C-alpha cells in the first residue's frame, strides 16, 4: 500500500513522524523540571530561526531537529503545572494525542462531505455541550479559534436578528442607514468584546457601560432601561478577578425588552458544567448566545473556541456562504454555516476526544480541581503576608505587595526565576499580581512552592 510506496519516501516520512513523536514524549516527560520561562541562552539560540530564507530545499530531518533542539527550549512551559499567566489552559494528554492524530488526518471541517468524521465530532460536541452547559435544546455551535472569534459570531448573529426584527436585512443592506442598535456591557468587559463590537461595525464610542461591584461583576441594581434594539454582552468570568455577572436578572431584563443577550464565558462558562460551581452561571439558559474556550478551563490544545447560539437560524444567516461548487445540506453537518471561515481545521476532533474521555463528572472534577487550587492560593497567600484582593469565586486570585513599586519588582523577580509565572494587572486602582489556575497539572505542592517563591521574590532573594 501507500505506506511502502517509493520505499525511501515512506521511510523518510516515517522517520520524521517518529522523531516528532519521540520529541513530544520527551518534552512532556521533562516539562515539570524545566524553568517555566526560557533563559537567555535559549532565547539567543532562536537566531537559528532567522536569517535569509533558504534558496532551495533542505533536509526536512535537519529542519525538524532545529525545531526540537532550538524551538523546544525556547517554549514557555505552560503545560508543566506552575504557569499561572493570563488564562492559558494546560493540556490534557488525550487532547494532545487526539490532536496529533487529527493533524495526521488533516481534515477540512468546512463541509460534511469533506470530512464525515469532523462533521460527526462537531455534531456530537454541539449536542454534548448544549446539555453540559444546560442550554436550550437545538442550540447551534460553531467551532472556531477562540473566544475572540466566538464572541464576534455571537454579536453578528445578534446583529442579524435584532435588525431583522426591525425589518432590515443586514446581509443585503449593511449598516449604512440601518436602525441603530444599543450596545450595553459591563464596565469590566474583556478587551476582545470591545474588539468584536468594533469589528461588527457598532463602534466602541456608543457602548453603554453598566457599573460593576467590587469583584468586577455587573450590578443587577444598576441595569439601565433596555429595549428591543439592545444587544447586551455579559461576562461569565472576569479575566482578573474571576467575577461573574448576574446572568439571571440581566437575561430577564433583556428578554422582557426583546433584546439579545450574549455571554462571554471564555473560561467561566465551564462553571455551568460543574454542580459545585453552577450557581455562578445561573440564568445562562436564558442567554441568546454565548462563547467559551476549550483551550482554557477544559485544557484542550490550542486553538479551540466555541460559539453557542440558541437562535441557530440567526447564527447561520449571519455566517452563510454558498457557491456553485459548494456541497451543503448532506446528511453530515456543514461546519462552515456556523463559523466565519470556510476551510478550517477539525478542532472538534480533540474536543470530542476530551469530552468523551472525561465524561460529565470528569469535566466537573476538572473545573472543581482548578477552583480548589485557587482556594488553596487564597488560603496560603495571606499566611505568607499577601492579601487576597478579589473574591476568589472561581480560578482567579489577585494579590499585591504594599506598594505598586514593590508589587512590580516582586513580579519581575518571580517571572525571571523560572519557578513559576504569573502576570500583572491593574485592579481597583492599584498594581496587582494575578494568579490564574488553569491547568490540570497544577498540584497542591505546586501551589505551596509558588507561594514560597513569591515570598522570596518579595523579600528580594532569588526565588
Ligand atoms: C481569554 C478571554 C477572551 C479571549 O479568548 P481567546 O480565546 O484568547 O480569543 C475573552 N474573554 C475572556 C473573559 C477571556 O478570558
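^ Assign residues to that structure.
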Amino acid at each position: 500500500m501507500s505506506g511502502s510506496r517509493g520505499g525511501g519516501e515512506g521511510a523518510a516520512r516515517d522517520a520524521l513522524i517518529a522523531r516528532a513523536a519521540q520529541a513530544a514524549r520527551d518534552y512532556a516527560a521533562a516539562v515539570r523540571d524545566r524553568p517555566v520561562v526560557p533563559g537567555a541562552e535559549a532565547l539567543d539560540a532562536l537566531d537559528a530561526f532567522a536569517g535569509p530564507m533558504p534558496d532551495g530545499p533542505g533536509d526536512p530531518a535537519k529542519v525538524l531537529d532545529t525545531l526540537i533542539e532550538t524551538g523546544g527550549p525556547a517554549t514557555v512551559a505552560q503545560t508543566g503545572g506552575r504557569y499561572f499567566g493570563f488564562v492559558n489552559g494546560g493540556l490534557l494528554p488525550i487532547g494532545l494525542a487526539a490532536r496529533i492524530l487529527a493533524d495526521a488526518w488533516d481534515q477540512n471541517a468546512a463541509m460534511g462531505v469533506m470530512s464525515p468524521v469532523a462533521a460527526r465530532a462537531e455534531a456530537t460536541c454541539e449536542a454534548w455541550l448544549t446539555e453540559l452547559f444546560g442550554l436550550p435544546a437545538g442550540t447551534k455551535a460553531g467551532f472556531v479559534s477562540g473566544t475572540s472569534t466566538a464572541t464576534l459570531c455571537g454579536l453578528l448573529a445578534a446583529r442579524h436578528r435584532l435588525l431583522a426584527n426591525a425589518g432590515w436585512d443586514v446581509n443585503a443592506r449593511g449598516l449604512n442607514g440601518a436602525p441603530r442598535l444599543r450596545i450595553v456591557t459591563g464596565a469590566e468587559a474583556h478587551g476582545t468584546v470591545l474588539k468584536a463590537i468594533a469589528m461588527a461595525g457598532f463602534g466602541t464610542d456608543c457602548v453603554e457601560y453598566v457599573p460593576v461591584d467590587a469583584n468586577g461583576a455587573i450590578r443587577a441594581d444598576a441595569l439601565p432601561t433596555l429595549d428591543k434594539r439592545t444587544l447586551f454582552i455579559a461576562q461569565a468570568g472576569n479575566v482578573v478577578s474571576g467575577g461573574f455577572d448576574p446572568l439571571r436578572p440581566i437575561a430577564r431584563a433583556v428578554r422582557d425588552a426583546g433584546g439579545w443577550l450574549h455571554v462571554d464565558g471564555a473560561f467561566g462558562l465551564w462553571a455551568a458544567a460543574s454542580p459545585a460551581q453552577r450557581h455562578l452561571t445561573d440564568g445562562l439558559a436564558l442567554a441568546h448566545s454565548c462563547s467559551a474556550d476549550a483551550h482554557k478551563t477544559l485544557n484542550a490544545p490550542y486553538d479551540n473556541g466555541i460559539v453557542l447560539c440558541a437562535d441557530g437560524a440567526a447564527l447561520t444567516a449571519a455566517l452563510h456562504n454558498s457557491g456553485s461548487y459548494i456541497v451543503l445540506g448532506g446528511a453530515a453537518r456543514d461546519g462552515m454555516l456556523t463559523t466565519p471561515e470556510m476551510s478550517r481545521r477539525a478542532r472538534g476532533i480533540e474536543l470530542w476526544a476530551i469530552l468523551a474521555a472525561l465524561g460529565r463528572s470528569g469535566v466537573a472534577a476538572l473545573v472543581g480541581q482548578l477552583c480548589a487550587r485557587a482556594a488553596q492560593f487564597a488560603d496560603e497567600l495571606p499566611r505568607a503576608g499577601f492579601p487576597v484582593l478579589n473574591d476568589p469565586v472561581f480560578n482567579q486570585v489577585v494579590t499585591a505587595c504594599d506598594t505598586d513599586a514593590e508589587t512590580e519588582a516582586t513580579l519581575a523577580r518571580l517571572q525571571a526565576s523560572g519557578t513559576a509565572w504569573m502576570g500583572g494587572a491593574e485592579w481597583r486602582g492599584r498594581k496587582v499580581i494575578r494568579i490564574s489556575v488553569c491547568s490540570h497539572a497544577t498540584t497542591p505542592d505546586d501551589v505551596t512552592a509558588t507561594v514560597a517563591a513569591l515570598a522570596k521574590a518579595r523579600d528580594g532573594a532569588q526565588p
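Residues 87, 146-148, 190, 192, 237, 239, 264, 266-267, 293, 305 surround pyridoxal-5'-phosphate (CB under 6 Å).
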